[in-house]
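Hi P.,

Sorry for the delay on this. The queue was packed all week, but I finally got your sequence through. Input first:
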Amino acid sequence: MDPIDVGKNRRLVANATASARIGCPRARASAFDILLNRGLYGRPVKAMKGPEIRVTPPGPKAREIIAGDDRYLILSTKTSPVVATRGEGIYIEDVDGNTYLDFTSGIGVTNTGHCHPRVVKAVHEQVDRLWHFAGTDFYYEAQVALAKRLVELTPGDFEKMVFFTSSGTEAIEAAIKLCKWYTNVSHVIGFIGAFHGRTMGSLALTASKPVQKDRFFPWMPGAVHVPYPNVYRPFGELEPHQLTGTIIDLIERHLDGYLGDNVAGIFVEPIQGEGGYIIPPRDFLPALRKLATEREIPLVCDEVQSGFGRTGKMFAVEHFGVAPDLMTWAKGMGSGIPIGAVSADAKMDFGVQGAHSNTYGGNLIACAASLATIDVIIEEDLCANATRQGAVLMKRLSELQGEIPEIGDVRGLGLMIAAEFVKDRETKEHARDLRNAIVEESYRRGLVLLPCGRSAIRFIPPLIVTEAQVNEGMDVFSDAVFAVMKRKPKNRTLQGWREPKPVGPKFDDLTQFDRS
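Then the structure:
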């Protein structure tokens, strides 16, 4: 192999980046060509294409690793037996040489795609200088730069400050403490169907699935839940237009009836994530903002899954014209390098040393990745691409819904999209087993998906996805749906439909993967 010329390859990436800044239409492709065809550090890398199933998944190497996982790792939330070894753009390669379309973005994390060259470059440059020195006890220039960038991007015409964490649940914990410290009261309000994390404070606000809270009581006391406005499944047989007023009135009744002035914060996801990708009515968040302002209660918007371009805006609250007092982030913030944060109205700062801190929050490598991620999202106009490709994906899902009555609802903003499966469109009874079977069949055909809610599938590809790749993924998904349903489309001209092809026997133990 030729000697590695690090400087030369970094210059090539820099040149491609410069082309992006002046509007070169091939800039993004050029940058990826450098990474995929040459290797960022001179090592030749084969460009990934897909999906390509060479060995019936999971193959022998994957099975061996899965067995080791079963033996040595405490069980978490396994969904599909993909044992990833390499990723590029929207593709994942497993240990047996299969290549998959990744429509999960590593659970909403790799918004810039796997191993985006500019993020890789930023990480490597930071690794060469310094990894860690504890930015909570000492000082990092990178933390100041990133905090300033986040404050400038965050909605709201007021001074803000940032606290860095290593994950979304930790960001929620910090937000809870900021709210309680500032108000000096005890209760918090959340929403049924919400997911804010699994540590004991955030778990108190989480109300997505029973398994997340079973056997863990007592969690943090003082959390009160009210319904979230689900237009597809409105509670109490309400009409969709009645949801916002009814829920706001219910919160008012809680406040007037027994909570009084003892609410430290209202925590809400602009779009519920684990709860099923539920999009509220357009007037809901503005009404909630108005109530919080009038009652002098801090409003906390959890953007852990919806932030950093996922919905076609940098942050989902921008769709609703709302500026919360606090916002929490993680997932897409660092393109896969663990980082989270909470921004807060500057008046809510703890103001004393030691009220809250951590060791790894705002790690230097994570800050470098996050700064590069933000640059990529803005300079490569990924929010606009999320809007464009989201429209393509919604159109394809709607076409499929016209053929499959078990698809009860298709909903989304940008590239945060879900299709909900039901046994009957009138009763809307959840079709969990059908949903799970389709996720499995899609995986076996080379498309990785994630469930959400009780019977929905989420579609969250990296924001760099092209129209051709969206259609390619939807072709695979359509094939999987028709194969599971044992049907052929009534409309033989349905875009992307192909005769379903068997790809081998199912993994005997696939039932161990809980998609609840």
